Amino acid sequence: MSELSTVLRAWRDRTRPEEVGLPAVPGRRAPGLRREELATLASISVDYIVRLEQGRARHPSAQTVAALARALRLNDEEVDHLYRVAGLASPNGRLVPHHIGPGVRRMVDRLDDVPLAVFTAAWDIVHHNGLWAAISGDPALRQGVDRNVVWRHFTDDFTGVGYDDRHHEEFGEDLVADLRAAHARYPDDPYLTTLVTRLRARSADFDARWGRATMSVHKASRKVMTTPVGPIAVDCDVLTAPGSDLRIVVYTTVPGSEDEQRLELLRVVGTQTLV
C-alpha cells in the first residue's frame, strides 16, 4: 500500500462527521468519515476515493488534492505531505493558497446564520454556506474561471447584485489591486498569471485599471441582492484570515429591518424558486 493511500485512510478515519458539519449518527461502527461522506465533501466520486485508498490511483490532480485537504481539514504540514506523496509540488509559499485551516474552518462554521463565503487571494471561491448560495446564487453551478469574482465582475457584472456607481467604481479598483498584490506575492502561480492575461485581453476596463497600478484596500459596502423573497439590502464586510491569505466575505442586515426578515425567510426557502 502506498503512502498516499495510507494517509488518506488514516485521516479519513480520524475525522469525525460533526467536525465537518455532518450530523453525528448513533451506532456508527467507526467514528470517522465514510467514503461516501468524504466524496460528497470533496466533490469527488466514491469510486475515485476507493481507488486512491486501495493504491490503484496514484497521481491525483492538484485540484483533487486541494479538495481532499479541505474536506479532511488538514493542517499546513499535512497538506505539504499530501501533495508530496501525490507526486505534486507543495503549494505553500509558491502558489495561491486554497487550503482552509482548522481554525478558519471552525470560525466560519460558527457563522452559519449569515451569508458567508471564503475566497483565495485571487478571488476564487473555496467555501460557502447555504445562505450564501441562496442569496448570491449557488457557486456549485459554476465551473472554472466563472467561480472567480474578478472575472465575473469584469465580464459578467454580477446579475442580481445592485449597487451605486461609486461602489461599482471602488469595488473594481479594489479587485484589481487585490489581484496585483496576489500576483506580486505568487509570481510562479500559472493559474494567476493566465487569469490576469485573459482579463486584460477580455476587458478594456480591467486592462486600463491594471495599467494604472492603483493600490487600495477593501472597504465595507452596501449592496442590494435580488432574491426569490424580494430585494435584500446587505452590508458587505471582507475579513482576512491571518497566515492563510484567505478572504472571508460576510453579508449582514440591519437588526429589526425588513431586510433581516427577508433574510430569515430566505433561510427557510433556501435555493428554491418561489412561484
Automatic annotation (TrEMBL):
<dbReference type="InterPro" id="IPR001387">
    <property type="entry name" value="Cro/C1-type_HTH"/>
</dbReference>
<dbReference type="InterPro" id="IPR010982">
    <property type="entry name" value="Lambda_DNA-bd_dom_sf"/>
</dbReference>
<dbReference type="InterPro" id="IPR041413">
    <property type="entry name" value="MLTR_LBD"/>
</dbReference>
<feature type="domain" description="HTH cro/C1-type">
    <location>
        <begin position="28"/>
        <end position="79"/>
    </location>
</feature>
<dbReference type="Pfam" id="PF17765">
    <property type="entry name" value="MLTR_LBD"/>
</dbReference>
<protein>
    <submittedName>
        <fullName>Transcriptional regulator with XRE-family HTH domain</fullName>
    </submittedName>
</protein>
<dbReference type="Pfam" id="PF13560">
    <property type="entry name" value="HTH_31"/>
</dbReference>
